[in-house]
Amino acid sequence: SKTLFEDTFHEARKNFQDIFRKLFQGGKADMFLSNTDDDMLEAGIEIVAQPPGKQLQSINLLSGGERTMTAVAILFALFKVRPSPFCILDEVDAALDETNVERFLRVLRDFIADTQFCIVTHHKRTMAECQVLYGITMQRRGVSSRIAVALHEVDTIQDGGVPGTS
Amino acid sequence: SKTLFEDTFHEARKNFQDIFRKLFQGGKADMFLSNTDDDMLEAGIEIVAQPPGKQLQSINLLSGGERTMTAVAILFALFKVRPSPFCILDEVDAALDETNVERFLRVLRDFIADTQFCIVTHHKRTMAECQVLYGITMQRRGVSSRIAVALHEVDTIQDGGVPGTS
Amino acid sequence: MRLKRLVARGFKSFADKTEFEFDSRLTGIIGPNGCGKSNVVDAIKWVLGDQRAKSLRGSSMTDVIFKGAEGREAMGMAEVTITFEDLGGRFDGATEIDISRRLTVDKESSYLVNGSEVRLKDVRDVLLDTGLGTGGYSVMEQGRIDAVLSANPEARRAIFEEAA
Amino acid sequence: MRLKRLVARGFKSFADKTEFEFDSRLTGIIGPNGCGKSNVVDAIKWVLGDQRAKSLRGSSMTDVIFKGAEGREAMGMAEVTITFEDLGGRFDGATEIDISRRLTVDKESSYLVNGSEVRLKDVRDVLLDTGLGTGGYSVMEQGRIDAVLSANPEARRAIFEEAA
Ligand SMILES: Nc1ncnc2c1ncn2[C@@H]1O[C@H](COP(=O)(O)OP(=O)(O)OP(=O)(O)O)[C@@H](O)[C@H]1O
Ligand SMILES: Nc1ncnc2c1ncn2[C@@H]1O[C@H](COP(=O)(O)OP(=O)(O)OP(=O)(O)O)[C@@H](O)[C@H]1O
Ligand SMILES: [Mg+2]
Ligand SMILES: [Mg+2]
Predict the structure, then answer these.
(1) Mutate which of B57, B89, B122 to disrupt the A interface (most A C-beta within 10 Å)?
(2) Would you call C16 helix, strand, or coil by DSSP?
(3) pLDDT of B164
(4) Could you tell which of A20, A63, A98 is best to mutate to test the pocket of ligand 2, judged by most ligand atoms within 8 Å of the CB?
């Protein structure tokens, strides 16, 4: 229905503005409906984003890492409107440098209170944030198995080895 | 013309089979033309890839890193048919773990003899392979500048700092 | 309402029965390329009723059954069980809810809730009840984070409506 | 035939004149997110004659001109110069070839080879001569490596034909 979408949209928009600022430590972003003159049911969603100190430009001109941070802000903005009991993220931090991973994790912490998260990652800083770490290995080629991993063992796991056996 | 494409294709195919095996340290891969009964000019190119120890499956079932390695094999296979004087790679190693970055660099070395490469990367191992490193920074927000970087200074650069000033 | 455990057997590269405890607020999954991390994500989507082969990177639903590996035969069935702790005691006062899904190479599909065979519809009702309706569990697949930005404005709206 | 140098001024985030020596066989470019690394890649594509705004992530060709930043005005022109060493001495015996491209906010576009103004066609001839015809320089853009796999078979063929 039109009203439910509108309410959801307004709440998501406000969340997006806040979360973007937190993730970028400044700057501003917004989302708005296009084509609203004809029919709100036909409206598309436009996004604008301006990292701190930079000019407002099309999101296509943003860098890879800036795009990920902006997309994460949208994802979390929507999620906050209707949080679910758990959320799974598969390598969302792939394009982020160390500073941005840190900022991403800081925002993630606000959501962990109400939602269980499971995150697949190659970033050591993200692994350090996790309370439990599972390493997946293929000791026999083509067959996966799981082992519990302590933070100091992550290098062995990532190289395909098994802790305690090297 | 049909013949030029066919010759190119056969050479690229052979290169692909070799380079894939080098990148995966085993396994096998192939590419073939589909729809050849109607018209070779309409044919599409199909790809199959089987990492060592695994079953032959659709490339869609491959992991993120396996897809990158397979795509790199195709890229280099084509490149070898008609090498150009220089080649620029922007974060092609993004999805690769340490072991695969190592294998990627080993194959890259074969191409450096005839082609100059410029590679944008976040991987330390790739940086260590480079003969010259340029760090890009934005000491004043929104304005880029370039500095030469020695390998032991890369952490400072990646965190957005400038060597010698911390 | 919280996720407790996941058990997979014969599902993609998890040939042998493999168990994951998801008790903590933030669980990390790590490992080298191709070892099976995204397959764990697929297992969760699958057991919660995902009907789209493409969403699991396959072309047919039976692509999720372990196809064999070096020195190891293909298996005849994939099975995943997910366990939730439901303190609301909605299921005959039970505090734990097990949802299982099975699929054989002959395409025989079955769903179980707390050991009793049910229909897909019943699984969906259970999930809706516990706040995990379609889209109610949030999964951001590998390589898909950029999609919400690269999508055109109308497609983006579709993502919004699905989430809200 | 080898790449020697790149100089950019007023191009995207490179407001001030910035120079890169590309003398080595493997040059690495590093730095944090958003600092300008992919903009260097765009500068090379642009000076070699790329006519597609989308390929440079923009919607209009003038998007490459420095738009200003905190405490810094926008500039009126973008200029990039690339220098090759051509041991074949194809250009009046000169061993170095400079190719420059300029674009003003009023959309005035110009190309120069060794300081003399030429047409885009002449730049393309120079590039063809030196083995750098369209597609002759290989650029794999960020996030695009997966495209050759996710493309359908016919689109993939188009990539082949372009490269071969
Ligand atoms: N039905 C199946 N039977 C056996 N193996 C399978 C099956 N389906 C997928 N696989 C294998 O699982 C592997 C992919 O695993 P997955 O995508 O989970 O890797 P990953 O750990 O996420 O790696 P990356 O870090 O590269 O993303 C592939 O090598 C694929 O061949
Ligand atoms: N015409 C312009 N004027 C000023 N700044 C611009 C212009 N065009 C692009 N930019 C800025 O350049 C930045 C993007 O730079 P670039 O894509 O090179 O980053 P990057 O170093 O590759 O980062 P990442 O590691 O995240 O990919 C953006 O913040 C964008 O706002
Ligand atoms: Mg994966
Ligand atoms: Mg970039």
Answers:
(1) B122
(2) coil
(3) 59
(4) A63
Query: Are the beta carbons of A131 and C136 separated by less than 8 Å?
Result: no
pLDDT on residue A154: 84
Q: Would you state the torsion angle of the CA atoms of residues A121, C147, A39, A35, taken in this order, to the nearest 10 degrees?
A: 120
Q: Does D134 score more than 70 pLDDT?
A: no
Judging contacts by C-beta atoms under 8 Å, the chain B residues touching residue D139 are 87-88, 90
Residues enclosing ligand 2, CB less than 6 A?
A: A 51, 54-55, 57, 61-66; B 142; D 12-13, 31, 33-39, 63-67, 142
Q: How many CB atoms lie within 10 A of CB C154?
A: 13
* pLDDT score of D61 more than 70: yes
* Residue B17 in tokens: 């089979």
Given a contact cutoff of 8 angstroms between Cβ atoms, the answer to whether B44 and D156 are in contact is yes
C59 three-class SS: coil
Q: How far apart are CA B123 and CA B135, in angstroms?
A: 13
| DSSP H helices in A41-153 | 64-81, 98-112, 124-129
**CB < 8 Å from D in window 4-63 of B:** 4-5, 8-9, 12, 34, 42-47, 59
Categorize the per-residue pLDDT at C137 as very low, low, confident or very high, splitting at 50, 70 and 90: low
Q: Which residues contact A19 (CB under 8 A, 6 or more apart)?
A: A73, A76, A77, A80, A107
Interface contact A142-B91, CB threshold 8 A? no
Interatomic CA distance for residues D92 and A166, integer angstroms? 63
Cα–Cα dist A33/C45, whole Å: 31
Which ligand does the CA of B90 lie closest to? 4
Q: Which of C145, D148, D17, D44 is nearest to B119 (CA)?
A: D44
d(CA A94, CA A120): 10
Residue-wise pLDDT for B110-140, tens only, equals: 999 989 999 999 999 999 999 999 999 999 8
Say which residue, B3 or D25, is predicted with more confidence.
D25
**Joined tokens for residue D137:** 């320089």
Asked if the model's pLDDT at residue A165 lies above 60, the reply is no
A95 touches chain B (CB under 8 A): yes
In eight-state DSSP terms, residue D136 is T
> Do D58 and A96 count as a contact with CB atoms less than 8 A apart?
no
Name the pLDDT band for C164 (thresholds 50, 70, 90).
Answer: low
Note whether A141 contacts B97, CB cutoff 8 Å.
no
Residue A110 pLDDT level (bands cut at 50, 70, 90): very high
Contact across the interface for B52 and A141, Cβ inside 8 Å: yes
Quote the distance between the C-alpha of residue D74 and its chain's center. Answer: 21
For residue A140, the chain B residue with the least C-alpha distance is: B53
Name the E strands within chain C: 2-9, 18-21, 26-30, 77-85, 96-104, 109-113, 116-118, 138-140
The pairing of strands C109-113 and C116-118 is antiparallel
Q: Looking at residue B150, what DSSP letter applies?
A: -
Chain B residue numbers touching D161 (CB-CB < 8 A): 5
- The answer, for B97 touching chain C at a CB cutoff of 8 Å, is yes
Q: What confidence tens digit (pLDDT) does each residue in C69-84 have?
A: 998 999 999 999 999 9
Of the candidates D55, D37, D159, the one whose C-alpha atom is nearest the C-alpha of residue B75 is: D159
3-state helix, strand, coil split of chain A in percent (to 5) is: 45, 25, 30
